[in-house]
Amino acid sequence: MPTLLFVFLMFVSGSPAQEVWVVPDEARAVENPVALTDEALAAGEKSYGARCASCHGDTGKGDGRATRFIKPAPADFSTLEARDRMTDGEIFFKITEGKKPMPGMARTLSDEERWQVVHFVRTLQPPR
After folding, report:
1. pTM score, two decimals?
2. 3-class DSSP assignment, residue 18
3. What backbone torsions phi and psi does residue 12 show, to the nearest 5 degrees?
């Protein structure tokens, strides 16, 4: 039987509370093959702006203009914790595969474009 908190969260959000997104270890271990250049960052920023910012927000906080329509809202990946927890391979996997309500970008962005977005996402996080 669902707990009262779970029922409340379902009522407020229209879906269960955000669950942990488990990424396979082999995907997490993949390193970014695209060189970090000004051109790659600019391309990543452009792709992020066109495909990601409406939900993830301009600064990766999960506060994009479309979040009022999606539940659960995207997680904040601009934090120190997110930077230390997520590998480049994990970010690439998540961009590629997607997870409802986020569509996968494998058919929309090339491998290179997705790796460029990974580089750009890293600029939204605190420096190491």
Report:
1. 0.84
2. coil
3. -75, -45
Judge whether residue 75 has pLDDT over 50. yes
Q: Rounded to 5 degrees, what angle do the CA atoms 120, 66, 64 make?
A: 40
Query: Cβ(60)–Cβ(125) under 8 Å?
Result: yes
Task: Determine the residue type at 50.
Answer: A
- Per residue in 51-71, pLDDT (tens digit) is 999 999 999 999 999 999 888
- Quote the CA–CA distance of 22 and 115 in Å, as a whole number: 20
- How much of the chain is helix, strand and coil, in % rounded to 5? 50, 0, 45
Report CA Rg, the chain. Answer: 15
Element (H, E) at 40: helix 38-51
